[in-house]
Structure formats: structure tokens, C-alpha cells
Amino acid sequence: MKIMFLLIGCSMLMAIGFLIAFIWSVRNGQMEDDYTPSVRILFDDKPVKEEAEEK
């Protein structure tokens, strides 16, 4: 029974850690732009080979 309390305590600490990380990422603007990454590939101007040749 003691192991159950230990595992519940560890899982609660881990869940709180993930919650803190999520809140920190939202406050720092990590979740603001959800449109651009999904359409960035549609508006790619140059193919990858041309970019490599320019360098």
C-alpha cells in the first residue's frame, strides 16, 4: 500500500511540473501563432536546391 502512495505522489509532482511548463510556454508566446506553420509550406518561394546553389 505504501508504494501506491509513493506512485500517486510522484505522478502528482510530474503533473504539476507539466502544468507549470505549459503555463510558462503560454505566457511566453509559444502558442500564439497557430496558423502560419500549417500554411508555410504552401507559400515557399524557392525550392531547396536553388537555396543551396546560391550559397
The profile of the biggest β sheet is: none
Q: How are helices and strands ordered from N to C?
A: HHH
Number of strands: 0
Mean pLDDT: 83
- Shape annotation: elongated
Structural class: mainly alpha
Can you tell me about this structure?
- The chain has 55 residues and is mostly helical.
- The protein is 67% helix and 0% strand.
- The protein has helices at 2-27, 36-39, 48-54.
- The chain is elongated, with a radius of gyration of 22 Å.
- It starts with a helix and ends with a helix.
- The model has no long low-confidence stretch (mean pLDDT 83).
Compact overview of the structure:
The chain is mostly helical. The protein contains three helices and no strands.
Task: Write the topology of this structure.
Elements: H1 2-27, H2 36-39, H3 48-54
